[in-house]
Backbone:
């Protein structure tokens, strides 16, 4: 039996047993106010998750002079997470940022190859641990308002010099650049060049297939999609953010000519890429997880900073600075993702619009600048965790059968009213938890008719602080924070 037939049978079996992107990160409270984050071992091995995820924590009122500490095993010593503020410019870093006016902390830490767990605690200036409540993994790293990724296609020996220029301009502006590499077109000098750029930082190695085949069914799918990844990891030593111990990760597949088909999409998932980036404009935000192919659905780009089709004879590029800047503005306005791409072989660095646009989108402290693979690695975790109150985040869309309105008053003392609307008759439970994830009250546990409902919660005998309600209506869960004050 040929290698291809064996491989086809393997893929068929894989698709029949495809992993559903479901809850695989679990957040719980430990002893002495520890927060324990645990990742499923197989997911840890498959994707590494060395990139720091941000954990948003609720702090006691009037907190000050706190620090965050982390360890990866109960037998290890605690180490401080470097403190940063919203006035600092940083990306892809371990960081502890405290917003005392909002009673919040944002702690960003990646997983280690030491174990499948992260232990986090908050300590005051007396070295006493402080009780905290886990709130969420924010949509973006460090709770930024949007994300920016830049990618460059057709990295090969023949384009090395032009890539050097492109890398220089993006790195000068602290922009992460995802390189779409064609391994079959790289010689030893090319690999040395790429290794040097990876070592200098702000570079992601992505696969652009092995040979950059024509936009038609590939002659050898396995060679183009899977072997290209193998060649990258064989010839390069990837940075720590793209590895877990000795295991290395190539997260991004960038389809030549923007061509894909069912076989390519299945191999992208089977090869543990996270996504396949195509070549069409006006794509913003995120794609959804594709359970069939075990990866995110294909994405396009927001803008291509190439000469226009009228000039090149191909492509989706624009050299209009207003069009380029408007793409970024749209993503900023929507709290979304801006995907900029270009081909270093044709981009017009000698014209002002190119650097003007890079200047326009860069160096903003409230924007997350990120490699394409890390963007979707973070997204995978952010949509698939379970909080201490049992609230799961996953990308499976359920029918919206309950609408919850803000409780009033909030803050409150001693009572507040929780209001909601059911869109069908369904079994309902309404639970109240304290910051330690302990159940303190059950307000409802019965079947209720469609329509508006409200429940008054009286907390006379409970201390002031943050509490959480968990409203379950059928298979749907809604939650929120309520604050009792003195």
Residues:
């Amino acid at each position: 039996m040929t290698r291809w037939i064996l491989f086809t049978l393997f893929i068929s079996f894989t698709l029949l047993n495809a992993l559903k992107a479901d809850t695989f990160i679990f957040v719980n409270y430990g002893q002495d106010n520890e927060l324990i984050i645990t990742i499923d071992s197989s997911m840890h091995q498959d994707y590494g998750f060395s990139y720091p995820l941000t954990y948003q924590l609720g702090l006691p009122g009037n907190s000050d002079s706190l620090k965050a500490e982390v360890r990866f095993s109960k037998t290890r010593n605690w180490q401080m997470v470097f403190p940063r503020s919203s006035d600092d410019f940083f990306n892809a870093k371990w960081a502890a940022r405290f917003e005392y006016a909002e009673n919040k902390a944002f702690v960003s830490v990646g997983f280690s190859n030491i174990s499948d767990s992260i232990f986090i605690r908050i300590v005051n200036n007396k070295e006493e641990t402080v009780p905290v409540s886990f709130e969420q993994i924010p949509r973006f790293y460090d709770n930024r308002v949007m994300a920016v990724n830049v990618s460059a296609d057709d990295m090969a020996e023949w384009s090395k010099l032009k890539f050097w220029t492109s890398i220089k301009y993006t790195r000068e502006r602290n922009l992460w650049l995802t390189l779409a590499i064609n391994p079959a077109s790289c010689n030893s000098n090319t690999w040395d060049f790429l290794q040097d750029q990876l070592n200098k930082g702000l570079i992601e190695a992505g696969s652009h297939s092995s040979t950059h085949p024509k936009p038609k069914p590939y002659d050898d799918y396995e060679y183009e999609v899977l072997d290209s990844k193998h060649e990258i990891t064989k010839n390069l030593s990837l940075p720590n953010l793209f590895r877990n111990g000795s295991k290395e990760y190539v997260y991004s597949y960038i389809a030549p000519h923007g061509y894909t088909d069912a076989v390519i999409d299945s191999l992208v998932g089977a090869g543990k890429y996270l996504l396949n980036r195509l070549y069409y404009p006006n794509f913003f935000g995120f794609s959804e997880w594709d359970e069939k192919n075990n990866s995110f659905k294909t994405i396009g780009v927001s803008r291509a900073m190439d000469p226009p089709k009228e000039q090149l004879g191909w492509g989706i590029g624009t050299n209009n600075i207003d069009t380029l800047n408007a793409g970024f503005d749209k993503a900023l306005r929507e709290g979304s993702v801006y995907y900029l791409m270009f081909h270093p072989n044709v981009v017009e660095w000698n014209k002002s619009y190119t650097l003007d646009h890079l200047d326009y989108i860069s160096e903003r402290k409230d924007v997350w600048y990120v490699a394409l693979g890390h963007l979707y690695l973070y997204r995978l975790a952010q949509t698939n965790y379970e909080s201490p109150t049992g609230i799961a985040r996953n990308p499976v869309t359920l029918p919206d059968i309950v609408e919850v309105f803000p409780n009033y008053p909030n803050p409150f003392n001693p009572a507040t009213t929780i209001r909601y609307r059911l869109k069908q008759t369904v079994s309902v439970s309404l639970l109240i938890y304290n910051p330690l994830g302990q159940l303190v009250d059950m307000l409802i546990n019965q079947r209720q008719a469609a329509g508006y409902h409200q429940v008054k919660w009286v907390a006379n005998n409970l201390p002031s602080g943050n509490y959480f309600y968990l409203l379950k209506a059928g298979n749907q869960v809604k939650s929120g924070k309520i604050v009792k004050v003195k």
User: Anything to note?
Assistant: The first strand starts at residue 25 and ends at 29. The radius of gyration is 24 Å. Residues 1-20 have pLDDT under 50 and may be disordered.
